[in-house]
Amino acid sequence: MQQEPVTPPNAWNRSRDFVAFWRQTLAVAEADVRKLGHDPVELLTRMTQPALWLLVFGQVFTHAKIIPTGGISYVDFIAPGILAQSVLFIAIFYGISVIWERDLGILQKFLVSPASRYALVLGRSLSAGVRGLSQAFIVYVLAFILGVHLRLDLGSITTVLAAVMTGSAIFSTFSLIAACIVKTRERFMGIGQVLTMPLFFTSNAIYPLSMMPSWLRSISRMNPLTYQIDAIRSTMIEGSQSIFGSGVDFAVMLAILALLIAIATKLYPNIIK
């Protein structure tokens, strides 16, 4: 009579640790996302910037017809870029909430808890990704009203949302690293403002890579926002083609995210020193 195989204790421990890690991660993310429900006005104020870009900038340059967009209208071309821009502008200032939590003594409680440092950082990245979904909803509604040729099948929307969440996680983690280094709200606000414009204008958000001089094109290829926009545009807009391929876009973004999470995990305890 054959005996049932016995699960090795170390395998059981690894499985239990894995489950505990994701419980901790989701708990941190859930606590952070819950704050959004307490301030619904924030969702309304987030509509202003993408609305201005699409209604004013997009409409003017659509009629000007001076930017080559590969066979699609300029408002179609710019809509994914404005979505990525909205996510960037929100995520890049995410670190200031960490500084507030430190000043209120909340962060110290997280750091002395048994939760893994990776879980604390990954949970914040995940919550930032969920927050980015609200921007996707806003831009989709505005784009639909403006007659943008959207791909509305489930696969396309799912891919767009995945790109939005990944990009939001990247820039929020980058913001967390900045907060761990500067440690004060005043310095952080200055750094956030300095970073957003170069990231935005060295990407393919409002003009294609083909229009850029070679030196700027090289910088754009090192900008994670470029890959996020490429992934969004190629799946969000009818008739749009990916420059790098969706597989490359997501591979680059996930590699950058993994690197930033590793750095943020090392620096995270320094914010209370």
Q: What does this protein structure show overall?
A:
The longest helix has 29 residues, at 9-37. The chain has one domain (9-272). The radius of gyration is 21 Å and the shape is globular. It contains 12 helices and no strands. The termini are far apart. The mean pLDDT is 83. It has helices spanning 9-37, 40-45, 48-64, 74-91, 95-104, 106-111, 117-145, 154-182, 185-201, 214-220, 224-236, 246-267. With 273 residues, it is an all-alpha fold. It is 74% helix and 0% strand.
Low-confidence stretches: none
Distance from N terminus to C terminus (CA atoms, Å) equals: 62 Å
User: What global shape is seen?
Assistant: globular
Rounded average pLDDT: 83
> Strand pairing plus helix content: what structural class?
mainly alpha
Largest sheet: none
Written as H for each helix and E for each strand, in order along the chain, the element string is: HHHHHHHHHHHH
Share of residues in helices: over 70%
Share of β-strand residues:
under 5%
Q: Brief overview, please?
A:
This protein has helices at residues 9-37, 40-45, 48-64, 74-91, 95-104, 106-111, 117-145, 154-182, 185-201, 214-220, 224-236, 246-267. The chain has 12 helices and no strands. Helix 11 packs across helix 12.
Helices and strands in order:
Layout: H1 9-37, H2 40-45, H3 48-64, H4 74-91, H5 95-104, H6 106-111, H7 117-145, H8 154-182, H9 185-201, H10 214-220, H11 224-236, H12 246-267
Helix pairs in contact: 1-7, 3-4, 4-7, 4-8, 4-11, 5-8, 7-8, 7-12, 8-9, 8-11, 8-12, 11-12
Give structural attributes.
273 residues; mainly alpha; 12 helices; globular
